[in-house]
Structures are given as structure tokens and as C-alpha cells.
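Now for one specimen:
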Amino acid sequence: MTQSLNDSILSILSMPDPAEQLQKIYVAGFELKVFDRFPKCVGVVRDECIALLVPGTDGMQMLGTPGWQMGEAIGVLVESGGRPVFQAKQETVEATPERLDALRRFREDLGQLLGKKERF
């Protein structure tokens, strides 16, 4: 076997199993949800924070940026009137320091569970 083929096989074998990743996420206290609007995604929710996950080449990956759960929508963090808010269409929710801290912890914890090294 050539070295590059060997490396390719080792790379495939070391990929995280999406089912195992989702189990670890669930055991860590996150709720898993499915949405009719996003049939290929799994929603991960904790403390009203939400992220969408999709299977990727390196296991489950976040699709877009985590945000605030606003009904069936994801409120993204934006600035409105000089203050941070979570917005989904025309609806907004104030991005209080407590909510921002919850979102930071959510992103960090979920990133660790997904095996991501980057910092948020």
C-alpha cells in the first residue's frame, strides 16, 4: 500500500461517527430537535440557544452561526438602534448580558463536543 492510500484509510477510520457525536451532545444536556423546514439538519438546543448541525466530512458540523431560539426560528445576533438584539424576521429579543453569556457557553461547549479546536 502506498503512503497516501494508507493516510486516506487512516483519515476515514478516524472520522467521528455522527450518531456517537449526537449521543455525546444529548448526554451533555443538550436537546435534539428536528425541523420540517430543515430536513437534513439536527437542531441542538440548550438554555434557549440553538444551532443547526449537518453531517460533514469531519462528522457533525454547525451550519451557520448559533443563535437564540425564537419559536421555530433562529434569532441571529445583530445590532439594532445601537444595541445588540437577536432577530428573526421582524421579531427581536434583547441580547442581555445573561443571554450573550449563555450563547458563548453554548458555542464553546458544543464546539468541544464536536471536537472543534477553534475559539468562539
Summary: The longest helix spans residues 97-113.
